[in-house]
Specification:
Blueprint: H1 3-19, H2 23-29, E1 30-38, E2 45-46, H3 47-61, E3 66-75, E4 78-88, E5 94-96, E6 99-101, E7 107-119, E8 122-130, H4 132-138, H5 154-170, H6 175-180, E9 181-188, E10 196-197, H7 198-212, E11 217-226, E12 229-239, E13 253-265, E14 268-276, H8 278-284
Parallel strand pairs: 1-8, 9-14
Antiparallel strand pairs: 1-2, 3-4, 4-7, 5-6, 7-8, 9-10, 11-12, 12-13, 13-14
C-alpha cells in the first residue's frame, strides 16, 4: 500500500466510522487483531466487534460527535491524524475512566491525535490521545477551579480594550501584551505591508511606535461592544522624535485619528483591525505633499 492509499483509508476511518458510525466500514477496514486505545476509556477495545461497541457507545452518548481532521501525516505503515473533536452529551451514558457519565446536555471542544497502523489495507492499531481533562471539565465532571476565567463578555472585552490603550500604547508596558493577547494574535494596519503576528510581534510594533513618538498619547473618543467584538474611535498626539516607517525624526508635533475593531476569543484579543488617516499622517511626516483647502501653503 502506498502512503496515499493509507491516507485514503485514514480519511475513511474519520469520515465513515468516527463521524458516520458506519459499522459495515469497520468490518471492511479493521484487521481481526485490531486494537483501539484512548486514555479517556478504562480499557482497550479489541477486534472489529470491540470497536463497534466503542463507536456505538460514543454516538449513543454524543449523537452530534464530529472529528475535524486538522493535519494528516503518513510514512510507511503509519498515518498520524491531528483532529478537533466537538459534540453535545445529550444521549446515553459516556464510558470513561471516571465511570459511566450520565448526559449533561453540555457541549465540548477538544484537541486530539491518533496514530493509525495500516498493513495491507487493514487498520491494525488506533492509538489515540485527547484532551480528557478539557472534555471532562467542559462536561461538568471536573471542577474548573484554578483555571483562569477567560470567557469573553462585552464588559470584560471593553475593559481589555481600555487596558490596551492606557497600559500598552500610552504607557508602553509590554508585559501587559502577554496577558491581553492570544498566541495567534494578528494585527492588520494599512501602513504596514504585512500583518503583525503574535505577542512578540506586537511588542516590536509598540516599541517602534513609541520609539518614533516617545510622548505618544491615545485618547479614545467612543467605544462600542457587541458580542466578542469592540470598536473604538481614537485620536493621537505625539512628537516625531525617532525613526518611524522609515522616516527620520522631524521633531514635529503629529496628530492623527482612526478606528480600531478588536476581536476576542476566550477572553483574549485574537484580531485587531486598524484604519487611520494614513494620508494625513504621511503628510505630517513629510512623505507626501499637498495643500489643505483654505490653507496658506
Amino acid at each position: 500500500m502506498s502512503v496515499q492509499d493509507n491516507k485514503a483509508i485514514a480519511r475513511r476511518y474519520y469520515d465513515e466510522i468516527m463521524n458516520g458510525a458506519d459499522l459495515a466500514t469497520i468490518d471492511e477496514l479493521m484487521a481481526p487483531d485490531f486494537v483501539f486505545t484512548l486514555a479517556t476509556h478504562p480499557e482497550p477495545f479489541h477486534g472489529p466487534e470491540g470497536f463497534k461497541q466503542l463507536v456505538t457507545m460514543l454516538h449513543g452518548a454524543i449523537p452530534d460527535v464530529h472529528l475535524t481532521v486538522e493535519h494528516l501525516l503518513a510514512e510507511g505503515d503509519y498515518v498520524v491524524g491531528h483532529w478537533t473533536g466537538t459534540g453535545t452529551h445529550t444521549g446515553g451514558p459516556l464510558l470513561t475512566v471516571m465511570g459511566d457519565l450520565p448526559p449533561s446536555g453540555r457541549q465540548f471542544r477538544i484537541d486530539g491525535m491518533t496514530w493509525l497502523k495500516i498493513v495491507d489495507g487493514k487498520i491494525k492499531e488506533s492509538l489515540a490521545n485527547e484532551d480528557t481533562v478539557g472534555m471532562l471539565t467542559q462536561l461538568g465532571v471536573l471542577p474548573a477551579q484554578g483555571t483562569p476565567d477567560r470567557s469573553s463578555t462585552p464588559e470584560r472585552n471593553m475593559a481589555s480594550v481600555g487596558r490596551y490603550f492606557d497600559e500598552v500604547l500610552n504607557e508602553g508596558r509590554l508585559e501587559v501584551i502577554d496577558e491581553l493577547l492570544a498566541p495567534d494574535f494578528t494585527l492588520r494596519i494599512p501602513t504596514l505591508p504585512e500583518p503583525v503576528r503574535g505577542p512578540e510581534g506586537m511588542k516590536r510594533f509598540v516599541t517602534a511606535l513609541r520609539t518614533g513618538f516617545p510622548d505618544i498619547h491615545f485618547t479614545v473618543e467612543r467605544r462600542v461592544a457587541d458580542g466578542d467584538k469592540v470598536a473604538a474611535r481614537w485620536f493621537i498626539e505625539g512628537t516625531h522624535q525617532g525613526p518611524f516607517l522609515g522616516v527620520p525624526p522631524t521633531n514635529d508635533r503629529v496628530r492623527d485619528q482612526g478606528i480600531d475593531i478588536f476581536v476576542f476569543r476566550d477572553g483574549r484579543l485574537v484580531e485587531l483591525w486598524v484604519n487611520e488617516n494614513d494620508l494625513g499622517l504621511m503628510r505630517q511626516l513629510g512623505v507626501v505633499q499637498y495643500d489643505l483647502p483654505g490653507s496658506n501653503r
